[in-house]
Amino acid sequence: MSFNVEFVAPSKAKAIKQIEIAHLPECIRSFLTVAVGALPAADEDKPRFIKVKAMGHLCEGPSSYSVSNAQIDVSEIRTSC
Fold first, then answer.
1. What is the pTM assigned to this prediction?
2. Is 53 helix (H, G, I), strand (E, B) or coil?
3. How much of the chain is helix, strand and coil, in % rounded to 5?
4. Which residues 6+ apart lie within 8 Å of 50 measured at CB?
5. Which of the two ends of the chain, N or C, has the fewest CB atoms closer than 10 A to its terminal CB?
6. Per the structure, how many domains does the chain have?
7. CA-CA distance, 81 to 68, in Å (whole number)?
8. Beta-strand relationship, 48-57 and 2-9
9. Which residue range is the domain that position 60 belongs to?
10. Strand extents, DSSP E, the chain
11. What's the CA dihedral at 20, 39, 4, 1 to 10 degrees?
């Protein structure tokens, strides 16, 4: 199964909501949810956005014969406002 998702959300809660509705394998969805949850709390004086990017391919079948890869990035985008 191939997957590719990229978005920017205005908060951790909205990022998690986007992850929940994205068409992603469950293991990738869980990993992204944990990664977003692990980001530090927002500082009210420094607005930020959450950037989520995940792409790759997961193969089903015996692990010794399957080839899977994934690139995942969860990061903050700080704004200067």
1. 0.79
2. strand
3. 25, 35, 35
4. 8, 9, 10, 11, 12, 14, 15, 36, 39, 74, 75, 76, 77
5. C
6. 1
7. 41
8. antiparallel
9. 2-78
10. 2-9, 48-57, 69-78
11. -70
